[in-house]
User: Fold Release factor glutamine methyltransferase from Denitrificimonas halotolerans.
Amino acid sequence: MQRIDQLLALAAQIDSPTARLDAELLLAFVLGKPRSYLFTWPEKIISASQQAAYLDLLERRKHGEPVAYLLGHQGFWTLDLAVAEHTLIPRADTELLVEAALRLAGRDSDWNVLDLGTGSGALALALASERPRWTVTGVDRIESAVALAQHNQQQLQLAHVKFLQSHWFSALAGQRYDLILSNPPYIADNDPHLTQGDVRFEPLSALVSGPDGLEDIREIIEQAPTYLSGDGWLLLEHGYDQAEAVRDLLRQAGFVQVSSRRDLGGHERISLGRFSSLP
Assistant:
């Protein structure tokens, strides 16, 4: 049996820019302790069963399996969410959608909001946690994703958000929303990044969208006006080099006040527009 500091030194075997952090998260998870425990008791010897569990997780991480899937949860916005292999791992870039949505309406607004392709429910739940007067609906075409989002909703006890199975708008006939937002698939089907890093383990159906990566975004933009209330907003996450194309699609569909927002890396990562029913 080995000490905590000896086990953490095995991080050197992981090919990751966050190798040490990965090892700390995995060992803390196995021990059922916060990371601070590892620094407080570096010479503590752990049990054989705990060591075996840690080494198994470390081996899986060495082969590229994402830490979020190994731990079964991931932080997003101010929330801690359960995640699973059939949904995307919530990422910090997607928080830009939350920030943009919150800026569009005051805290006392009572908007009806739709999150398309909700996955783990990250966007819908983040918005619901910040705007208690909003009615938020998240939809996903994958039944197991809807179940996961519902689990997260129950854990967070957010009663004003619900999740339904729907392929984009297919189950939403007659509904109208003040805000529709989505982090849809936007990677081209031949993109070399699909064979690199964490995305190798994530569901292709949540990543890939045709030869240019814009098939789902086109479909959403074309259908959204039918489901938006007067002067409703549409917000979309997209690839770092797709902003101009998405803005063009929004304008062609009749959206106004079209613009994009940059992430911390300076890339235009989301685009938005307002659809007016007035001539």
